[in-house]
Design brief:
There is one protein chain. The protein contains 10 helices and no strands. It starts with about 25 loop residues before the first helix and ends with a helix. By secondary structure, the protein is an all-alpha fold. The protein has one domain: Rhopdopsin 7-helix transmembrane proteins. It holds the Pfam family RTA1. It is a multi-pass membrane protein. One of its GO terms (cellular component) is fungal-type vacuole.
Length: about 290
């Protein structure tokens, strides 16, 4: 924001909406819809995670959906007052961080998917998918959290530093997801060559789960790619002031991932991942 608008707390003739960082009032209908979607998926992830005892998956996906819901709550606050600092800070921090937690949920399941299809076809040992990609995701979250915290302070000397940290965190996340995608495509090709009926033999439920997870991963990836040029343009850039692009390439992408990860929940369609299943399997061999 320009220096002489630093004291603005509400829209007035001296503090027009065009002078805010985004230059618009976030549209109420779309942001309420996204708030409802993320609120419902938060509940779904919490209930299903508890039911199937997927503690780690429950934690990251519930946090991810909850952060999105809070972020869109912040945007709704900004509809009534685009100069609202609490609303601005809430949506900046929450919407920036949330996708990383959903990506972590996908990373947590990869080890079990590889074991199911055959670890001999993977370039990495199954456990390394969790350690490497969840570790990289944690670095991304920490970097973006630091950047979001500085940016939300809304002080001229901190905005650019915060922006650079956010871009670095997202760029690192994109690189991590790309490497993961390459490894998984390679794994899928090797499985197909060795066992051409591998998917058919797994059953429709598991195939649905794998396909839904792949689409979720892709939508999160698209969102992260969009965020790099959007943030690189700086605060108040033309791209950052385009709400339609944001709602489609960020909001809709992550909403799609959250919905798919709730409908195609691993506890329902991939029971081998649950601690309950692992315990029963262990007891059967005693």
């Amino acid at each position: 924001m320009r220096h002489h608008f630093n004291e603005c707390v509400d829209v007035t003739p001296e503090c027009p909406v065009e002078a805010t960082t985004y230059g618009y009032r976030p549209v109420l209908s779309a942001n309420i819809l996204l708030l409802v979607i993320f609120g419902l998926t938060t509940i779904a992830q919490l209930v299903l995670g508890l039911k199937f005892r997927l503690r780690a998956f429950l934690a990251v996906t519930t946090i991810g959906c909850l952060l999105e819901a809070l972020g869109y709550g912040g945007r709704i606050i900004m509809n009534s007052n685009p100069w609202s600092q609490p609303g601005f800070k809430l949506q900046i921090v929450c919407i920036i961080l949330a996708p990383s937690f959903l990506a972590a949920g996908i990373y947590l399941t990869l080890k079990h998917v590889v074991i199911e299809f055959g670890p001999e076809y993977s370039r990495l040992k199954p456990k390394l998918y969790t350690w490497i990609f969840c570790g990289c995701d944690a670095i991304s979250i920490i970097t973006q959290a630091a950047g979001g915290g500085l940016a939300s302070a809304n002080q001229a000397n901190l905005l650019n530093i915060g922006n650079d940290l956010i871009i670095a965190g997202i760029a690192f996340q994109v690189a991590t997801m790309f490497c993961c995608w390459v490894l998984l495509v390679d794994f899928a090709v090797r499985v197909h060559k060795a066992k051409k009926d591998a998917f058919r033999s797994m059953g429709l439920g598991f195939v649905f789960y794998v396909c839904a997870t792949a689409v979720s991963f892709l939508t999160i990836f698209i969102r992260c790619i969009y965020r790099i040029p959007e943030m690189s343009g700086g605060w108040g850039s033309p791209m950052q002031r385009n709400e339609v692009d944001f709602l489609v390439l960020d909001g809709a992408m992550i909403a799609s991932a959250a919905i798919l990860m709730s409908i195609a929940h691993p506890g329902i369609f991939f029971p081998a991942i649950s601690s309950r299943h692992q315990k029963a399997l262990k007891n059967s061999h005693v």
